[in-house]
Each structure stands twice: as C-alpha cells, then as structure tokens.
Amino acid sequence: MRIVNGTCPFPRGKAVGGTTISNGLAYVRGHPIDFDRWSDMGNPGWSYEDVLPYFKKSEDFHRNNPLAPVDFNYHGTGGYLSVEYHLPPSRYLAAFLNANQELGYKLTDYNSPEQIGASPVQQNTKHGRRADGGSAFILPILNRTNLKVMTDSFVIKLHINEDTKKVAGVYFSYKGKIHIAKPRKEVIISAGAISSPQLLLLSGIGPKDHLNEMQIPVIQNLEVGSTLRDHSQYYGLTFASNISLPSQPLSNYIEEYLKGVGPFTISGPNDGIGFYQTSFEKTANYPDLELVIISPNATSTFFKDTFGWNDDTYDATWGGIDVSSSFSIYIINLHQLSVGSVKLKSNSPYDYPLIDANFLSDPNNRDIQVLYEGIQFVLKLTATDAFKTIGAKFQAKPLPACKEFEAFSKDYWYCSLRQLTFDVYHPVGTCPMGPDSNSGAVVDNKLKVYGITNLRVADSSVFPFTLSGHPNAPCVMIGEKVSDLIKEQYNRL
After folding, report:
1. I need a surface site. Which of 110, 178, 192, 458 has the fewest CB within 10 A?
2. Is 426 a catalytic residue?
C-alpha cells in the first residue's frame, strides 16, 4: 500500500490518498560523491554505482538541443520520465554559457560525474509540456488491476498495534467520511519531507517529548522531523539588458506551443544553470554552489506575494526595472549546514505543521559565507564581455533594511543575504536514513522505519543531507529502488 500526500513521484505499485504528484523543473541528480557519502555513512546500497542504474531506468532522455553538452553514458532512454531542453535557446543562455567559458569553466553535462561547469537546463518536459510525476508514472498505468488511485483523499493517521508495532491500517478521509485501508503486507509513505514526518508524528512515531506535548501516545521514539534541511537561495540579484523580446499574437504562441517550442513551454529555469566549488568546499571537484539564470522576469511580483516583501524591499529589488528585458541570477547553497525542523501545531491532521527552515543559522556561518562568495562570483560573471554584449547591468538599489551599511560593501551584502535568502522548495532530511536510530536515523538502508515491522518511507525526507542537485530526480530514483527492495523482500525480484 502506498501513501502519497506530497510531491515525490512513487514507483509502480498501489497508492492511497494524495494531492497532485509533481516533479520539480530542472532535472539535476547530484554529484557521485553525494551518493558515495550516503553509502559511507553506513547505508549500503546507496553508492553512486548502486543508484546510477535506477536514474537511467526511469529516464527518457532527448537531446533536442544538438549544441547541449551530453555524456550519453549517464543517461537512459525508454523510461517513464522525459528529460529534454527548452527550445529555442535564448540570448540570455548564450551570454551565460559564453561568460562561463570566458572565466575558464567548461560546458558540461551536469548529470555526469563532471558536474562543475555550465549547461542549458535539462528539464522534465515532453515535447515542451510539463512531465510531472503524475503524468509520467501514473497516467500511463491507470488501467492496471493492482492499482487504485483515489484523488481528493487525505491520509490522516496510521493505525499501529501498540503491542506488535505493526501497521494494521491507514485512516484517510474521502467524500466527507473517514475510511481505513488495511495492508496485506506493508505500508510505504511517500508524502514528502513535510507531510511524511507530520503523518508519522500524528501516528505516534517521533520524539517522545514532542508527542507528549501534543498528547499523542508514543509508539516509537524516533527523531522524526528534527532535521529539516533545504537549499537556501538568494533572490537579490537583478539585471537589465538590451534584449527586447518581440511581442506576437496569442495564436502564434499557441502554435509554437503545439510544436513543443516557444515561451509557453517554459517551465521555470529555462535558460542556463551552472555548478561551482567555493573556497569552503575542500573535497576536490565537488560543487557546493549553483547558479540559475532566469529570464525574463515577468513573474517578479510572485516573490513579493510569496515571501511577504514589503513595498520598500520590492522597490529596491525590482523598482523601475523593465521586467520584459531583465534577468535574475539565483544563488543556491548546495551543502547546507543549517538545520531546521518540522513539528506538529496540534494533534489534528488538518492543522498545517510548524515548519522552521532556520536558514543561515549554522554556528560557523559557513552557509552565509558560501552565498556571499556566490554574489561576488555573479558580479564577476556578469562583468564579462559575454554579458556586456547584451548590455547586462546590475539594477537592484540598496535595501532600506540595510541602510546602516555602506552600499554593496561586505557588511551590506551580509545584511541583504539575511533579508532576501529564502526557500528554493528542496526540503529533505526529516526522516533521515542511517544505521543507528539512537544517532537520529528514522529509516534504515531498506527504507524501513526503525521499530515498526511493516512500514517504509520513500521520499526526500530520507536524504541524510542536502545533495549537490535538486530532490526531484533522486526522488524518482528512490521510487525505482524501493520497488526492487519490495520485490526482493517478497522474492519477486
């Protein structure tokens, strides 16, 4: 039985509950060192050599941009998940790639072991249309007799026998009534890094002090929700350019979309992406910094609404900018050290959990220093001849919140980082994998929850740390891998 209330795709099996399943936008697996570290922490079966076949198995890769750097040894075809490039390439992308080469970085396939460098974005679209997890993995198999998908359902609690510590059923709401689904063998939770810990906590699996505070009987004392990790992203670098995008009739855009090209096929970071190693990462050839160039910035007001910027902050970042000819470069700290948490607000499944990302809180301030080094690199990158050809000019004005500091000094940038660093929606690590539950692990290397005989978690919550990539591709890998773990358990592999 599969529980999905969240956003990680799940493998081919039975499902209960859930909202729309969707992947992220850019398809970025991470560096081989990530997975070798994962294995070396006491998790056999999760090295790069172990997981690469699962990445390739799920992938249907299309090199629809013949100029994109590709190492076909690390890609698969014929899988459920489409991976391709946005077309046509933009002038912003050309400037970004040329600027990287000007500074000595090569063009690379970042889903190969040679991740450091720049590339057009590999994204989960198929003929220009978004290829989310639901359309990729579920829609093609809806007629299978061993699959039942119930939309508009909401899983609220696991029914666990307190004596045997075995999951006897899953309570979920559907059409105004509470139902229970009883597993024949086991239950697999894939509700994401926020909802998976929430569901475990509601079911009595979590830190005993927190469960006692919420008046929930303790079934298993585990550090569920205690280690929320995420990639922090700085949103404060906006630039003007001399590129003016032509306006066309709506019918032209629709015609392009139907051909799989044009602006209607853009899904997020459609331009360039790059991976770099800062002075703080001591492992050779291991990227800890990501840059993404986004253009044009017609969705700038999204950030004001989403992150709650006041008018002064918004005007300093976007005021007076022609969004139709502007671009941003986002800076992402990949090896996040700051640790947050996911806790219950109450013992009601209908209350949103309390999420504390706790960004830029690591005691040695490495996270903010990595982002500051990223700012300096972006300013250097946009000063190259390649960016001068498109008239790139830094546009943001000093933030009123940082007026006590000299504009664009180091102290100013540190202040700005604390004002404009937010979520990039890559939460992981709230049910981490590890060999010892006494050291904070929630699941073992088979994704089984410690102390519960028939329960697994299979989503980004099991990541033991943030990867040098985005969670969606590793989530798909986990889905493929847990399918084999289940088959192996019951001699079906």
Report:
1. 178
2. yes
Give dist(CA 42, CA 334) in Å, integer.
22
Cα–Cα distance measured from residue 138 to residue 81, given in angstroms and rounded to the nearest whole number: 11
Q: Which residue, 128, 133, 98, 113, is CA-closest to 48? A: 113
Say whether 155 counts as a known binding-site residue.
yes
User: Cα–Cα distance between 138 and 327 in angstroms, integer?
Assistant: 36
Catalytic residue selected from 31, 86, 231, 426: 426
In terms of phi and psi (left: phi > 0; alpha: psi -120 to 50; beta: otherwise), the region of 131 is: beta
3-state DSSP assignment of residue 3: strand
Catalytic residue among 31, 86, 210, 470: 470
Q: Which two tokens stand for residue 159?
A: 């029914």
DSSP conformational letter for 283: S
| Average pLDDT, integer, range 255-266 | 81
Taken in order 82, 87, 92, 93, is the CA torsion positive or negative? positive
Dump the DSSP string for 164-184.
TTEEEEEEEEETTEEEEE--S
Per-residue pLDDT of 274-293, as tens digits, reads: 999 999 999 999 999 999 99
pTM listed for this prediction: 0.92
Q: What residue ranges define each of the domains in the chain, with the CATH number in brackets?
A: 2-22+134-229+427-489 (3.50.50.60), 87-120+231-337+359-423 (3.30.410.40)
> In 265-274, which positions are buried (b, 16+ CB within 10 angstroms) versus exposed (e)?
bbbbbbbbbb
- Taking the alpha carbons at both ends of the chain, their separation in whole angstroms is 18
Q: What is the mean pLDDT of residues 302-326?
A: 83
Q: Is 261 annotated as a binding residue?
A: no
- Please write down the long-range contacts of 210-216, taking CB distance under 8 Å and 24 or more positions apart: 210/343, 210/344, 214/344, 214/346, 214/347, 215/347, 216/344, 216/347
CB atoms within 10 A of CB 169: 17
pLDDT at 252: 84
Separation of alpha carbons 14 and 27, rounded Å: 26
CA distance 34 to 335: 10
Say what the pLDDT of residue 305 is.
Answer: 81
- 263 versus 165: the higher-pLDDT residue is 165
Residue with tokens 């096929």: 265
What is the bridge-based pairing of β-strands 238-240 and 187-189? unpaired
Cβ partners under 8 Å of residue 163, min gap 6 = none
Task: Please give the structure tokens belonging to residue 333.
Answer: 């700290």
CA neighbor of 323 nearest in space, from 425, 380, 239, 428: 239
The predicted model gives 88-108 an average pLDDT of 95
What number is the average pLDDT over the span 7-35?
A: 57
- Respond yes or no: is residue 86 known to be catalytic: no
